């Protein structure tokens, strides 16, 4: 049982399922995969393993208030602006963030992945690494192969911490952003499935992180923009995807 302090139910997104199972949406033979549209279906979840933790906003701490957009995870926006969440099929997924900070401003960037320990009533760090940060904009951070794999049907909270100087004379400030991820395995797709079709399938099944990674890998700018719009993140589609960042551990 995950503590209530991690939770704040959003009725527009989360529904109780009396079966007690977390069930992702599945693509049936009648699904219109032949279309070019990317339609993201947010999964429904049940109460048995804990609903997506929504205790606080994922928004940036805004240490540099003159910036139009703050540090933000590219994870579907929740209607009440509480912490966003998403599914992945993978044991070592990639995550995406928008960062407004020039590398010249940044002292340190750290990714931290945590679970909740019910006995000790606290978050447990599962994986943590400094990140080599080389450019502002949209950045991808992959969970490396030597990191502990995500356990199926377990919620993880991911944090991105950035230590930054807003001006030449300002003190060092700490910004942070967070989201939740649940690994929900499913049968693999045929190896010859084209990347754009993989992205559409993953989006319809509710696997946000896998859909976003497939769209990025296919290099289809229209699909990228459309998927971000589906997740309520359209304002970030104008920013470039940078070849950044990698774990330093």
Query: What is the CATH fold-level name?
Result: Immunoglobulin-like
User: How many discrete domains?
Assistant: 1
| Spatial extent as radius of gyration | 18 Å
Q: Major beta sheet, specifics? A: 6 strands, mixed
Pattern of helices and strands: EEEEEEEEHHHE
Task: Tell me about this structure.
It is a single chain. With about 250 residues, the chain is an alpha+beta fold. It has a single domain (about 5-245), classed as Immunoglobulins (Immunoglobulin-like). Helix content is about 15%, strand content about 25%. The chain is built from three helices and nine strands. It has a six-stranded mixed β-sheet, covered by helices on one side. Helix 1 (about 195-205) runs antiparallel to helix 2 (about 210-220). The longest helix is centred in the C-terminal third of the chain and has 11 residues, at about 195-205. The chain is globular. It starts with about 70 loop residues before the first strand and ends with a strand.
List keywords for this structure.
6-stranded mixed beta sheet, alpha+beta, Immunoglobulin-like, 3-stranded antiparallel beta sheet, 249 residues
Secondary structure layout plus pairing:
Elements: E1 72-73, E2 85-88, E3 94-99, E4 106-117, E5 122-132, E6 137-142, E7 155-164, E8 173-183, H1 195-205, H2 208-218, H3 221-230, E9 246-247
Helix pairs in contact: 1-2, 2-3
Task: Summarize it.
This protein is α+β, with helices and mostly antiparallel strands and about 250 residues long. Helix content is about 15%, strand content about 25%. A six-stranded mixed β-sheet has the order 2-8-7-4-5-9, with helices on one face. The chain has a three-stranded antiparallel β-sheet with strand order 1-3-6, with helices on one face.
